[in-house]
Design goal:
single chain, mainly alpha, MetI-like fold, globular
Length: 318
């Protein structure tokens, strides 16, 4: 992996981040009508003109568009995402508080999905057409068909209401009570993991079957290598590239897909301020959260490419 290749990838990420920020900035100005009036309008009642003028001044909408854009980019470079129109505190503070909780939930769900989906896909490929393969494929189809909020509700009903072995939802900081924190994390992490585990299972199974059919596998077996070494060294490593790609894309999707899970389990992540901001038309908060999720998605794609380069050095020279 050369420094030139890494610098080129970082430049692409920076350029895409600037493009996303520009699109988000222009979105407000592309909305028909006065943005300040739209933000203050509730129940179809026209807002007070004085309030509209005050909000326009507060948002800087009276200034030329180029000046607003320059101030917007300057604020982003300083880490200033503006101030909430509802609570009147810095948007970056709310994101700094909520984002680690959402990332923790995504990380826990991803670990569960990897530990379940990838080994199951490997065993299903080795048992192609067998009982395990058919059963795992059926379970996968079922998991993909069940919406995440339905699964979350069923998990609460079974483990919290019926068996009473897990809490129904809520949040306790890890530093305050580690055991209770992990208990509260378990059910939402499982709900998050179900779709990702199913996708990883299918991709791993397909990639393994494709790798098993290659000539280098037959050659390795002909040389007398043990079946375990053939699978681990020659088959699994070559099958991991598409699996890593799907994992990265799905984890990026989870950044925006945890809203329902956090709502069902009352997990105070990014969904709470996002929903409140949309309902209250808190433009700076919505923009800050959208930009944060977008940049994280770009960084996640960069990590995926780095992993690809480690698994296959040819990628770094492409």
């Amino acid at each position: 992996m050369s420094a030139t290749w890494l610098a080129r990838k970082l430049t692409v990420v920076a350029g895409l981040a600037w493009l996303v920020a520009t699109i988000v900035f222009l979105a407000l100005h592309m909305v028909p009508g006065d943005p300040a009036e739209l933000l203050l309008s509730t129940g179809g009642v026209s807002p007070d003109p004085a309030s509209v003028a005050e909000l326009r001044e507060k948002l800087g909408l009276e200034r030329p568009l180029f000046v607003q854009y320059a101030a917007f980019l300057g604020g982003l470079l300083r880490g200033d995402l503006g101030t909430s129109l509802v609570d009147e505190y810095p948007v970056i503070s709310e994101i700094a508080l909520r984002l680690p909780r959402t990332l923790e939930l995504i990380a826990a769900g991803s670990v569960i999905a990897i530990l379940v989906g990838v080994p199951a896909g490997v065993f299903a490929a080795l048992d192609r057409g067998g009982a395990f393969d058919r059963a795992a494929s059926a379970v996968t189809a079922l998991l993909l068909a069940v919406p995440v909020f339905v699964l979350g509700t069923l998990l609460v009903l079974l483990f919290a209401q019926t068996l009473r072995i897990m809490p129904a939802g809520g949040f306790v900081p890890f530093s305050q009570d580690p055991v209770q924190h992990l208990k509260l994390l378990t059910l939402p992490a499982i709900a998050i993991a179900k779709g990702l585990a199913a996708v990883l299972f299918r991709m791993t199974r397909a990639a393994m079957l494709d790798a098993l059919a290659n000539d280098y596998v037959r050659t390795a077996r002909a040389k007398g290598l043990s079946p375990t070494r053939v699978i681990v060294v020659h088959v699994l490593r070559n099958a991991l590239n598409p699996v890593v790609t799907v994992l990265g894309l799905q984890m990026g999707t989870l950044l925006g897909g945890t809203v329902l899970v956090e709502y069902v389990f009352n997990w105070p992540g990014m969904s709470t301020p996002l929903l409140r901001a949309v309902e209250g038309r808190d433009y700076p908060m919505v923009v800050g959260i959208v930009l944060t999720i977008s940049v994280l998605f770009l960084l996640l794609n960069l990590v995926v490419e780095l992993v690809h380069a480690l698994l296959d050095p040819r990628v770094a020279h492409s």
